[in-house]
Amino acid sequence: MADHDLVIRGGTVHDGLGSPPRIADVAIRDGLIVAVGDVPETGKREIDARGKIVTPGFVDIHTHYDGQVTWEERLMPSSGHGVTTVVMGNCGVGFAPCRPHQREMLVKLMEGVEDIPEVVMVDGLPWNWESFPDYLDALDERRLDIDIAAQIPHSALRIYVMGERAARREAPTAEDLAKMRALVAEGIEAGAFGVTTSRNMMHRTKAGELAPSLHSDIDELCALMDGLTDADAGVFQIIPAPDGDAGQEFDILRTVAEHGRRPLSFTLLDVAGQPGGGWRHMLEGLERAAADGVEMRGQVAPRPVGMFFGLDLSLHLFSCHPSYRAIAHLPLAERVARMRDPDFRRQLLSEQPEDSNPVTLNLVAAFRATCPWGDTPQYEPAREDRVESLAAAAGRSLEDYSYDLLLGDEGRAVFYLPAANYSGGNLDSVREMLGHPNTVMGLADGGAHYGLICDASFPTYLLQRWARDARDDQRLPLPLAIAELTSKAAATVGMADRGRIAEGWKADINVIDLDALRLHVPRVAYDLPAGGKRMQQASDGYVATIVSGEITYLNGEHTGALPGRLVRRSLARPLERAA
């Protein structure tokens, strides 16, 4: 009779803390790691990990699966990239708390901020909750391929307390602030891991209305922090204004962090032309805060925060042209056929884009700086790869040249825009931010931006680009890269039971063939409620992914196991003090 449920044999084990790896067996029983070293006993199942690396399961602290988790069992694409725990409710958007008559407001907000089609949410959301504790109770019933954790979204909270006043840019009353504070404490006590908000002016409804959180002054942000203080737990997550003065933005972040003395994490990006010293000023501010005992951490993306364009995606150069909008509802093949008609082409090229949302118009205009992709991902394109450069070299106008490119591969051609984190045309700034003691890798955005961004593959990219393939002077040591994805991420949100391979810790584990690790180009799948579409990005190299001791993925294929559950915030000791 076998002694263990599962034994992973002879792999190169990384403990998740950045320690040097060692060759060892890992034994698992009842969802926990029970032995690491030489394991003579047998397992009901065994995995031969010789020549492979064995890591803790990855913890993704910045996702938007708030809706998807209610209608799906598999949280793809994240679960296909070694992620075993996701934290939802970021950027101040989500679906709880919510009164029945406010549902449409939250749906329209999520549609605009996170590029999730309204029809998908209307068809998919069960709305079997009102309060945030109700929402957690509903999630408790779900059976998934990975674990989930939730945070309280500020915009939903503001709408719940203030109703229409929240969207009319009205300032909250003292009573409003007291209610928000109490609801944050209530959510934390029910199991939320924190509260989240946004100051990013790009966060709007599809029609262009600003997200309610953007109307908040510092008193309101401090009221949210007071809720964490009252509960004596939780993390404050915030998106600063990317076009705001970096010095002023950091001062706001530090004021909020000092006000409640609770941990605060924020989006840290290299934004071209940002005044006030940009990302470097914020990194220096983090160092000063740490020296003063103020717990703050910047979330850093490991590559450009990129956007995809194409006829089969959310946006492209002609998305806002009247003639295109008249056919946008048609299946792709029919749109391609119409666009090949010379008369239609002539009419469309004579038009100008029109939209009530300035963000949409700016994104459409940014198509000129995109780069066509073939069969291999190219996240670091040269300037001469841009569509505008290719058009100029061909002696054609941007519009005329782009029209033909968009029709490539029967309308499935994909174009990539390296937006933030690429101001110098390289990733030097990313490497300086990445691996810093006061930053953590984040911002993968799984579950959002279905037709615009596909960054849930960040964990795979980090290992491939920075730990394996980077030149010697830029390489992130593999043990430290793994720590970014595991113990460091878990500690950032206060998870004390995962992110390490050690006896007594939760058995969330990856077995990876590092040499074979490879990303594929994202592909569109029409597999959402109401036939909605999203990008999925596959990878090679994941031999096995294990959640709570159960093998969920084997050589990239789902085993059918659904051990994932809601994780409620624990009162356990902090990770760094756990045995």
Written description of the protein model:
- With 579 residues, the chain is an alpha/beta fold.
- It has 21 helices and 25 strands.
- Strands 1, 2, 3, 4, 5, 18, 23, 24 and 25 form a 9-stranded mixed beta sheet that branches.
- The chain starts with a strand and ends in a 21-residue tail after the last strand.
In short:
The protein has 579 residues and is α/β, with parallel strands linked by helices. It has 21 helices and 25 strands.
What does the largest sheet look like? Answer: 9 strands, mixed
Helix count equals: 21
Measured on Cα atoms, how large is the radius of gyration?
23 Å
Rounded to the nearest angstrom, the distance between the terminal CA atoms is 30 Å
Q: Would you tell me the structural class of the helices and strands?
A: alpha/beta
Spans with pLDDT under 50 lasting ≥5 residues? 571-579
pLDDT average, as an integer? Answer: 93
Percent of residues in beta strands: 15-25%
What is the global morphology?
A: globular
The total strand number stands at: 25
Helix content: 25-40%
